[in-house]
Write a structure and sequence with these properties.
Layout: H1 5-17, E1 26-28, E2 31-32, H2 43-46, E3 56-60, H3 66-73, E4 78-83, H4 94-101, H5 105-127, E5 132-136, H6 144-147, E6 150-156, H7 165-174, E7 176-187, E8 198-200, E9 210-212, H8 214-223, E10 226-238, E11 245-255
Parallel strand pairs: 3-4, 3-6, 4-5, 6-7
Antiparallel strand pairs: 1-2, 7-11, 8-9, 10-11
Length: 257
Amino acid sequence: MPRTTEQIAELQRKVAQIQSWYHRIDLGDGIETPGHFRMADYLRHYRLPERMDGLRVLDVGASTGFFAYEFERRGAAEVIAVELPSWDAHDWTPRQRAELAAKSATEKRKVDREVMVDGFTVVGEALGTRRVRRIWKAIYDLRAFELGTFDLVFSGAMLMHVRDPILGIQRLRECCRPDGRLIVSISTALLDQPEPLARFVGEWNQCNWWQMSPACLDAVLQCCDFAHIDHRDRYTLQDVTGRFHDPTYVCHAFPRR
C-alpha cells in the first residue's frame, strides 16, 4: 500500500532522529537512510542466490540491517539477525573499556539505542518486514543447540572486530547445516599476499584487531571444517564520500560432510 504524505513525513522524521547510520538503505518514496556505505553497489561481489525461498539465514553483525532485509527481499523464510547486546560488548582494549565504563548509564543507553537498536528497527518497520528477527549475542556465543542450524550463514566485514576470529569462524561453522554455506567477507590490506598471513591492526580506542590475507582466511576456513571454498571475489569498499577505501575479500565456504 502506498504511503500517505503524512506517513512519508513521519518516516523522514524517524530517520533524521537517528544520529548513527552504517548502511544506506532505500526505503522507498525517495527516502534513503544516511549511512556511510551503500552496500547495494557491491552486492554482485557477494554472489547471493537470486532467490532464497525457504532458506533459514543467520546474519552475524547485522548493524542497521541492509543484508538481513535483502535476504528477506529475496524470499528467505527466516532471517536471524545477530547484533551485540550493547556497545560495551565489543572486544575493546582495556584502556578504551575503562573510558567507556566511566560514562553515565544515561550516556550508555543513548549510544546503545542510537547505534545498536533504532536504525535496524526503523528500517524493518519501513520495509514491512515479517520474517526478520533480531537477537543479541556475541559471535562467540552462537551455538547450534540454542539457535539450530542454517542454510546460509553470513558474516559481512566484521571478523576484524573480534579478538579471536578463529573461534568466531568455529561458531559460524557450528551453526551451518552440512548442506549449507557460509558467505564471509573481510577487510584486508594483503590482497596479493600468497602466504596465509594475518596483520595486527589494533588501536587502543578501536575494536579493530586482525586483517587476514585471502589465503589466510581460506586456510582458517579449511581448518574450521569447511571443505570447499568457491565464489572468491575482491573489491574495494568505498564510503559515500569516496574518501574511505577498504580492500575486501569475499568467498563462499561449504562444510565438510
